[in-house]
Amino acid sequence: MPVERTLSLIKPDGVERNLIGQVLSFFEKGGLKIVAMKMLHLTKAQAEEFYIVHKERPFYQELTEYMASGPIVAIVLEGENAIAKCREIMGATDPAEAAEGTIRKTFALSKGENTVHGSDSPESAAREIAFFFSELEICPRS
Ligand code: DAT
Ligand code: MG
């Protein structure tokens, strides 16, 4: 299996509820390595740019307002099959549909305030990693 990198975010509800350490533990216990990390507070315009693929969706305003409502943690994860592995560890978008033992089943409050983001394809991972990090800020561990 290929070694990949993917972008995860701990969303404002996760930071607000002091879940940073526990979320990182899910990823580390799942076999992914943290190769870059930072905390930041997106502006509304930056949240809109990050989620531009969803701009026609009915929840776009709500989503981008929420993502700009407080600090987040951006993380680059590395490992074999990291993109799918990260999404498996996160669980389904809606916590009511997420599998037992996943981050969203354990912590998410709703479909919108669902604690974590994870890239969904190699193309989105490349775009989303570059949105937050330069190559110099990433420490390869494979
Ligand atoms: P995911 O984050 O699982 O990749 P997505 O890309 O379909 O899900 O949507 C991005 C985010 O938008 C999601 O994490 C939470 C929000 N969202 C999605 N569907 C929603 C809905 N029906 N109502 C409110 N927020 C929604
Ligand atoms: Mg998505």
TrEMBL record:
Residues 3-140 form the Nucleoside diphosphate kinase-like domain. The lineage of its organism: Bacteria, Pseudomonadati, Thermodesulfobacteriota, Thermodesulfobacteria, Thermodesulfobacteriales. Signal peptide: none annotated. Major role in the synthesis of nucleoside triphosphates other than ATP. The ATP gamma phosphate is transferred to the NDP beta phosphate via a ping-pong mechanism, using a phosphorylated active-site intermediate. GO terms for cellular component: cytoplasm. It comes from the Bacteria. The keyword Cytoplasm applies. It comes from Thermodesulfatator indicus (strain DSM 15286 / JCM 11887 / CIR29812). The active site is at H117 (pros-phosphohistidine intermediate). InterPro entries: NDK-like_dom, NDK-like_dom_sf, Nucleoside_diP_kinase, Nucleoside_diP_kinase_AS. This is Nucleoside diphosphate kinase. Pfam families: NDK (PF00334). Homotetramer. It catalyses: a 2'-deoxyribonucleoside 5'-diphosphate + ATP = a 2'-deoxyribonucleoside 5'-triphosphate + ADP; a ribonucleoside 5'-diphosphate + ATP = a ribonucleoside 5'-triphosphate + ADP. The gene is ndk.
